[in-house]
Structure formats: C-alpha cells, structure tokens
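User: Hey, quick favor. My workstation is busy. Could you predict this chain's structure for me?
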Amino acid sequence: MGLKDDLYSNVSNIFATQWAAREGQQVPDPTDVNLGNDAVTLNATVLYADLAESTNLVDNYKKHFAAEIYKAYLLCASKIIRIEGGEITAFDGDRVMGVFLGSTKNTSAARCALKINYAVREIINPAIRAQHRDSTYEVRQSVGIDTSELFVARTGIRGSNDLVWVGRAANYAAKLCSLRDGSYASWITKDVYDALADEAKYGGSNKSLMWEARTWSAKNITVYRSSWTWTI
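Assistant: No problem, here it is.
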C-alpha cells in the first residue's frame, strides 16, 4: 500500500469510528489514552505561560544568551506550576502549558500567574542585570488562563504521539498569552475570575482588587488583567 492509500485509509477510519470517552479525575499520561478514537473528559483550568518577543530575542542576541533566557523563564514557570498543584502537559518553544484540577483549580492557576510575574520581575531580570551589565534586555511575558470541559485525545503515530487538549480552555488560554499591554502580564477569563477565592482577588494591606475588567475584542467577552505579583 502506498502513502496516499495508507493516509486515505487511516483518515477514513478516524471519521468512521465511534468515540469512546470516559470522565477523568486526573491529568492522563499519553499511555492512558489509546491512539484510536479514545478520549478522557476533564473539567479543568488551563494556564499558558509565554515568553514575549522571542523572535526579537533570537534574531538580535547571541544564541547562548537567548538560550539562557528560555531556560530561566521556563524553569521558573514550570516550578511554580508544579508547586501550585498544576500538571505540566506541554512545552512549545517559548511557552509552557499547565493543567489544574480540583475545587481550587482557578485560584491556584491565578496565584501561579502572579507568582510567575514575581519571578520575572524580582528574580530573572535582576539576574540578567547582574550577569550581563551592558545589556538592556528585560524579560517580558504573559500568562493566559481559562477553565472549561476538555476532551483529551491521543494524536500522532506509533512511536511519535502525544495528547491533544480539545476545548475552550486550552484554546483561550493560549490566545490570551498574545495580549500585551504594558505591565499587565496576567490574563484570565470571567469564568476563572468568578471562581476565585478572595485571596486571589484582593491584595496588599488595604485589600485592593488585583484584577481589572477588559473587553477582549477578538471574542467580545469580558476578561480580567493584572499587573500584580505574588511573593514567592
């Protein structure tokens, strides 16, 4: 059988086969889901942490410096996701995806975003200035968060496959990362905001609201942004 016939047969089989979906209670490993039309459904909150202006970084700075920035940002974001109870599910170049489950998933994810902002401002950028005194480079980044039901399937071929996260939360969280607005590094949907515990809504000695409502024109929905940090 040639490649064309093989692809036709496999694609036809994908569309013709009934799905077997089951409700999940934890983030699945790829081996927990079959390569066929098998899936796990989850009510989850998805966080994407994304390094801004990475094209400018690789185009205009030395390779080893760019690699240091990638490594420092993704290390900090990943460790914070883990410490806040999230599961790291994917790396995509200059971004990392985390999935949060449970009754406090939205609060944990929002606190995670504020901690990542703290790490960038108070750990990464000071370390850059200390090591590279002649450089004016500063890390900028954005975190996007949404919550919804997700349909988790396994895609690819034998020997080279991974999970695909189908649902609004994965899509919106990834797109919210592209919103750049000055010092506002954390972006959440209204569904996430409405589920936050007060500790993740109000901060400072006078308990000021840490989030500001905005209209996301691309989707014509209300989202919330924050420039606050959460001390690690």
